[in-house]
Amino acid sequence: MRFTRAALLLAAWPFLRADEGMWTFDNAPLKRIAAAYGVTLDQAFLDRLRLASVRFPGASGSFVSADGLVLTNHHVGRSAIQQVSSAEHDYIKQGFAALTRDQEIKVPGLELITLVGMTDITAKVNAAVKPGMSAAAARQAREQAVKDLQKAEQEKTGLRVDPVVLYQGGEYWLYAYEKHTDVRLVAAPEEQIAFFGGDPDNFTFPRHNLDFSLFRVYKDGQPYHPKAFLPFGAGVKAGDLVLISGHPGATSRQDTVAQMAYARDTMLPFRIASMERQRQALLDYAKTSTEAKRLSSDVIFGLENNLKRFKGFLAGLKNAEAFARIQKAEKDLQAAVAQDPKLAEAKGSWAAIAAAVSKEKAQLKETSFIDTRASATLAHALTLVRLPEELKKPEAQRLREFNEANLKATKARLTQPAPFHADLEAARFAAGLQEALDGLGKEHPFVKALLGGKAPKEVAEAAVHGTKLGDPAERKRLLEDPAALAASTDPMILLARKLDGFNRAARKRAEDEVDAVYKEHGGRLARARFAVYGKEQYPDATFTLRLGYGAVAGYPANGTYTQPFTTFAGLYDRAWGQGAEAMNGAWALPPRWKEAWKQLDLTTPFDFAYSCDTIGGNSGSPVVNAKGELVGLNFDGNIEKLSNRYYYDSATMRAVAVDARAILEALRTVMGAPELARELAGK
Amino acid sequence: MRFTRAALLLAAWPFLRADEGMWTFDNAPLKRIAAAYGVTLDQAFLDRLRLASVRFPGASGSFVSADGLVLTNHHVGRSAIQQVSSAEHDYIKQGFAALTRDQEIKVPGLELITLVGMTDITAKVNAAVKPGMSAAAARQAREQAVKDLQKAEQEKTGLRVDPVVLYQGGEYWLYAYEKHTDVRLVAAPEEQIAFFGGDPDNFTFPRHNLDFSLFRVYKDGQPYHPKAFLPFGAGVKAGDLVLISGHPGATSRQDTVAQMAYARDTMLPFRIASMERQRQALLDYAKTSTEAKRLSSDVIFGLENNLKRFKGFLAGLKNAEAFARIQKAEKDLQAAVAQDPKLAEAKGSWAAIAAAVSKEKAQLKETSFIDTRASATLAHALTLVRLPEELKKPEAQRLREFNEANLKATKARLTQPAPFHADLEAARFAAGLQEALDGLGKEHPFVKALLGGKAPKEVAEAAVHGTKLGDPAERKRLLEDPAALAASTDPMILLARKLDGFNRAARKRAEDEVDAVYKEHGGRLARARFAVYGKEQYPDATFTLRLGYGAVAGYPANGTYTQPFTTFAGLYDRAWGQGAEAMNGAWALPPRWKEAWKQLDLTTPFDFAYSCDTIGGNSGSPVVNAKGELVGLNFDGNIEKLSNRYYYDSATMRAVAVDARAILEALRTVMGAPELARELAGK
Predict the structure, then answer these.
(1) Taking the CA atoms of chain A, what radius of gyration do you get in angstroms?
(2) If you measure CA to CA, which chain A residue comes closest to B315?
């Protein structure tokens, strides 16, 4: 082996960009931070930050007072705020602030967790593998060891214990969580100021979003005193070191060059074209009447938001310099694998993945078009048709959505009331069927089966106007009455029966020929990478607690340099400069904010941009200074950052946070809750 | 001929984008405006707008009060403001406002002109061409006719009369101008607020520039009462029709596809690489000391500004959709030419131009590198060496810069004092020589002659440190003493003697083989275009008065929609959000503006974006509403607009104006000149 470990470590450096990484708390990049920012952090700092960090369902938050106040984003707390609203009290629209503790509103079912213990069980798990075991037996032995250790830890601590696999099997951990089940809503601004700028400003900076909400954890009916909390600090300035603690969800940074090139050249352009087609169908429909325009506007905005995301992914992959870095990293790993017999299992993995990419490409149209074609009622029909059949099978053989883990949600979706607008759905369904016809051709068995030689529009309109499945009561009836379902001649049920087999076949082919290969060989490459670079690299995001570091910083954009901070003055500039009518009122101010500029300290920083490496799941993460004081609340990234799903680049990618000072000023001056501001400021 | 005129007119429409065009006042697009905006403008409107328009040297302005106040940009008035400043009174830095008329400061030499008469002499000029005349004789007959008519008009009116050739010979006009020679400075804000955001924000939007200055025209010692003026109006809102009257300088929109593709694929990347090389040399030099950093910072900023411009040109040409439109327009014109025997002279012109493009490409390195290589003293030396020789020749045979029209300026440049920093110049010159060596190779005769086998750095340092030409007195001495010049052994003079012949040869080759072809065949294509489309098209910009129309409008950028207006609140947001230290203080506020936010009406619109088709020379142009009231003062465009040198696209290109309301509010609240605000508001 010609590569020494030291040489490889040096080789690893160029791939890690300044401020890159979603690091585990056992492997915090303290040396990198010290080298880059001249700041030395210690274990006590890390422990306090970890213990103050809170996980929300799908997102992050933190304890911010000795009396259990929890800070997260408005968009993270949104469903809880919605849940405790009523017809008279629309807290989403009007905002909410508890002036006394007895006004705080319990959110039934909301559960938060804190990471209180981390145990490395890698050695024990690997010890379960005995010499001579087959690969399958080894995998099973490891799984069993993890299960046993998890159970033992759970019994010992009485805590929730989750196994965590890092570096795709390079390390095994048990994370122990304290659960918080009495969570009460304390304060939230109006959604219109939390999400100021709406979908157009989403994923962009400069930004003016007061995207926060406050909850309080109670224990035994009393405010909970957390093991650690983050007091609000005096604020940051450009260039200051900041750290973020939160739960990044998932990244695709370990994909091979073949996978990324496929995403760039085929998959993303294909998805974008498909979305643009749906958008055009919706725009055409919107032109038919004022009511049609109103009904379709949310769907159109949602689609445009998704288009923006996908175009962001694509733009990032088209960055030639970044792509060259990705290629270089792959070449280096290939060279290391070629020279180390211990890494032999990964030797053929690039080729295996490339072959699976070719298959994915060949299957792309079928895996994309053989589905419910944007018809919500057809989706319901398909679930109804499949349910009895799936429930007969053993768990392991069922389609994913009928697993025990997903079954409840699948059934709930079926009976949940949702608006059904026949004309809108017919327009979308017809566009979807037309796309399948154009893409697969009229001789394709699926197309022939669904259209039966008729025009897509005709089929769509007949089915949508003929079905009763737009009514949740009807869906409930068929769900509960298998005989009625079996006898049903509802046109959507008829279509679902035709679709079922085609869709199963396409899914199975993709799972067997593509996904299974990616999983197996992606795992081998990950293990090789871990063998070569070890913990000089951070593991893929796994929605477990991670640490990021960086600086408050503007960036080059729009021909100039974007300001690192916005201020309350900027909020009003944007509102007045856009006008209340622009883009469906995206920049309209809620009533009590309209004149508040006369009272607010307009110099107060509002949002700021910073170079930490974050991704979905980091919403609501605390941003702290080197003293561990809360200076910001992460809520989004700039448009350049969309592509950090694939790679990170500190030159232009920025996370975006609400400045802590804006939260205090808003609580004091607009939301009429100076007491809360005092609690946050630790006074 | 299969194309009917009506069909061609229809065919012409798609090439003209909404709001496109720099229209002559005799051919104002009133029907297009009425169709697009439902607003009917009449001849009186046009006459008043034209008579209120003023031409500054290289730029535009307008009469804005009955007492002869003239409004233009700060950057247009800058040299005049500089001229009347003194050591005690730095009006550039501190701003200026005359509180009474006797405080208004005369600017010696400043001359403004107003277009008071337009005479179409096309028929008379064409009548001078007799049947059977050769092409040369016809050209001469036309030129003589223009001269005679100009002289007669001048004698008749006593006015300045300029001949104007439109549509490259499609039309001939005489434009008669009234001259204003007593022009006094009335008010100007601090440059730091006029050019807030500095070079970084230059060519961008959102913008916060108070880029205005006020002058007053006097006649016989009394304020002049102009024939027309534009009173300040109540302001515009998004979507409102606006019109602009000014003097766009030059466009390249009639270039052929071959020329544009050459600019996109070869010339612009080449120039950008060359500038980046110079920038790198300057950055390296800047690292050598604090003084070096200080000395080079202006040059670096200037280079970066130019880089931004060139990258803008390039980005525009890389817009595939726009390029396809340009190709389509060329194909359509080719089809029309192919079918009309009367247009036969243009038939071979595309091929002739394409051949010349190949030559330009082949010559690119030599025409670029065989010059004075960024050395100002070598440039002075070359002028000195050439002057005696050139003055012996008849006017027509001289190099352009020694023509009667340019000779005075050429000599003035020679003796004008300018800072000479030997180390800075040596660094730039060395980089320039190195570029020539790398590009042409060490065997190239020019490289051999200049370097004599030595390293570029050695040659540059010896020449720069050995020359006395950094001193204007020495240049004056050699200019006035031909014998001393002939005997000089100054190292830069020696280099200039070597350079002279190579440079002349390269210039001549480019002029004969490239420029002459472009002129001749570009003219033929222009005449064909005029024959086919007539005045449905606007003529190329010629720095004569033009009318543009459009609407106040945001545009998609940065992942969202840019606000059409900024406000005074935005000025402070930008200043506070960037910080006073960022980018050499680009966003620092002048002292009296720092606290002014407490007095200013922050809701006041500051700058706005609008879709009129403008280009360099339009600086200072009045922007008026449909009532002919002044609502804005044009000063720049957004980054997307840089490429409108080649084509126009109303989807993203925006001109940028100071809002008239910002000027009034600034005069009243910060500049202490409420009287002027009252005069502008017509009160």
Answers:
(1) 26
(2) A559
B306 vs A: CB within 8 A: no
Could you tell me the two tokens for B283?
């950055």
pLDDT tens sequence across A449-497: 999 999 999 999 999 999 999 999 999 999 999 999 999 999 999 999 9
Chain B residue with minimal CA distance to A567?
B573
CA–CA dist B626, A446 (Å, integer) = 59
Partners of residue A577 in chain B, C-beta under 8 Å = 206, 563-567, 570, 605
Distance in Å, alpha carbon of A509 to nearest chain B alpha carbon: 37
Residue with tokens 């595309």: B350
- Rounded CA-CA distance B20/B549 in Å is 8
Give me the residue from B312, B560, B574 closest to A563, CB to CB. Answer: B574
Direct distance between the N- and C-terminal alpha carbons of chain B, in angstroms, rounded to an integer: 61
Best interface-test mutation with A: which of B576, B589, B653 has the largest number of A CBs within 10 A? B576
Residue A344 contacts by C-beta under 8 Å, 6 or more apart in sequence?
A: A337
**Which positions ≥6 away from B190 have C-beta within 8 Å?**
B92, B93, B94, B95, B590, B592, B593
A602: nearest CB among B312, B560, B572: B572
Q: Is B570 on the interface with A (CB under 8 A)?
A: yes
The 10s digit of each residue's pLDDT in A404-461 is 889 999 999 999 888 899 999 999 999 999 999 999 999 999 999 999 999 999 999 9
Total Cβ atoms within 10 A of residue A271:
18
Helix (H) or strand (E) holding A577: helix A568-578
d(CA A398, CA A390): 6
Question: ipTM score of the complex?
Answer: 0.90
Q: What is the pTM of this model?
A: 0.91
Identify all chain B residues contacting A597, using CB atoms and an 8 Å cutoff.
569, 602
CA distance A289 to B656: 36
B637, B623 contact by CB (below 8 A) = no
Nearest CA in chain A to B586: A561
CB atoms within 10 A of CB A109: 11
Report helix angle A376-392 to A472-480, nearest 10.
10
Side-chain half-sphere CA neighbours of A282 within 13 A: 21
The answer to whether B382 and B500 have CB atoms below 8 angstroms apart is: yes
Q: Do residues B620 and B244 lie in contact, with contact meaning Cβ atoms separated by under 8 Å?
A: no
**Alpha helices (H) along A254-289:** 257-262, 268-286
Nearest to B570 among A557, A564, A577 (CB): A577
Say whether A132 sits in a helix, a strand or coil. Answer: coil
Q: Which residue type occupies B554?
A: G
Quick check: A3 pLDDT over 80?
A: no
Nearest CA to B59 out of B621, B441, B626, B584 is that of: B621
pLDDT score of A13 more than 50? no
With H, G, I as helix, E, B as strand and everything else as coil, classify residue B92: helix
Query: Which residues, 6 or more positions from B390, have their beta carbon under 8 angstroms from its beta carbon?
Result: B398, B399, B402
Beta strand A69-72 pairing with A59-63: antiparallel
Residue B657: CB atoms within 10 A of its CB come to 29
Q: What is the DSSP letter of B285?
A: H
Q: What is the rounded distance in angstroms from the CA atom of residue B21 to the CA atom of residue B398?
A: 37
| Mutant choice from A311, A576, A601 vs B, greatest count of B C-beta within 10 A | A576
A583 → closest Cβ in B203, B561, B574: B561
Q: In this complex, do A577 and B204 lie within 8 Å of one another by their Cβ atoms?
A: no
For residue A435, the distance in angstroms to the closest alpha carbon of chain B comes to 24
Name the β-bridge partners of A548: A244
| A554 part of contact set with chain B, CB < 8 Å | yes
For residue B598, the model assigns a pLDDT of: 96
Question: Would you call A238 and B204 a contact, using CB atoms and an 8 Å cutoff?
Answer: no
